[in-house]
């Protein structure tokens, strides 16, 4: 399981390593860990994952640096890219499209696969099951998509100081998001978890109030700030974050029995009363 300090930051956003978002559902030929060789029938430890990926475009998954382009007997032609503390090797490629020491950004095409693709991942020098990184990437992309983004960067809004009532719990909330946000997003997208009617009503009222107060389009809109929020939008962002955090915490309490360590019994009861779980079996 990924820990908080393993969360990948990327100024250019995030992208799956295969062709477009369909890469998130690429078929696995050979999984990570103890496996049986499909040709010899012998057991061995597979230090990566092989995907069905026939001469497809391969992409940088985040902001990174190319740390290796080469060929060896085990990996064939390969390219290695460092993303923060992660090093991802794309092996058995048919063509490398970037050179050693090149800087790359999320969504930039860096290579083409061969008949299949082998990926291995290391974090701070230690081997990691690639599916853990891929799951985190998919979760990040899903969050951006829910905000109307794709693989574009999420930048800070200049000169806006945003505070929520959960500032003191920020580190713990970030840690919980690393572990549970992809599950929360899937529950929302499939209808197994829905915000309360009260939450939805408050959000609508907040947006209407913000429009009346000319909070939108204070600055030139961009992909990362499509409403052009500026200084006047600071309180709006804080209030919106409070609602979204509370909905996430309500999901954790209802589905996993998890509460912030700072919560009193009274706060736990209040949180559950604010949420309406519409789970479907």
What does this structure look like?
The protein has 281 residues and is of the alpha+beta class. The protein has two domains: 140 residues, Distorted Sandwich (Glucose Permease (Domain IIA)); 120 residues, no CATH class. Helices cover 31% and strands 23% of the residues. The chain contains five helices and eleven strands, in the order E-E-E-E-E-E-E-E-E-E-E-H-H-H-H-H. Strands 1, 4, 5, 6, 7, 8, 9, 10 and 11 form a nine-stranded antiparallel β-sheet that branches. A two-stranded antiparallel sheet has the order 2-3. A hairpin with a 2-residue loop joins strand 10 and strand 11. Helix 1 crosses helix 2 and helix 3 runs antiparallel to helix 4. It is elongated. It starts with 27 loop residues before the first strand and ends in a 7-residue tail after the last helix.
What's the helix and strand layout?
Elements: E1 28-30, E2 33-36, E3 43-46, E4 49-51, E5 57-59, E6 64-72, E7 76-83, E8 86-96, E9 103-104, E10 109-123, E11 126-128, H1 130-146, H2 170-189, H3 197-212, H4 234-256, H5 265-274
Antiparallel strand pairs: 1-4, 2-3, 4-10, 5-10, 6-7, 6-9, 7-8, 8-10, 10-11
Helix pairs in contact: 1-2, 2-4, 3-4, 4-5
What's the gist of this structure?
The chain has 281 residues and is of the alpha+beta class.
Instruction: Figure out the total of helices.
Output: 5
CATH architecture of the largest domain: Distorted Sandwich
| Proportion in helices | 25-40%
- Summing up helix and strand content along with how strands pair, one would put the structural category as alpha+beta
CATH superfamily of the largest domain: Glucose Permease (Domain IIA)
Multimeric state of these chains? single chain
CATH topology of the largest domain: Glucose Permease (Domain IIA)
CATH class of the largest domain: Mainly Beta
What is the radius of gyration computed over CA atoms, rounded to a whole number of angstroms? 22 Å
Mean pLDDT: 80
Strand content: 15-25%
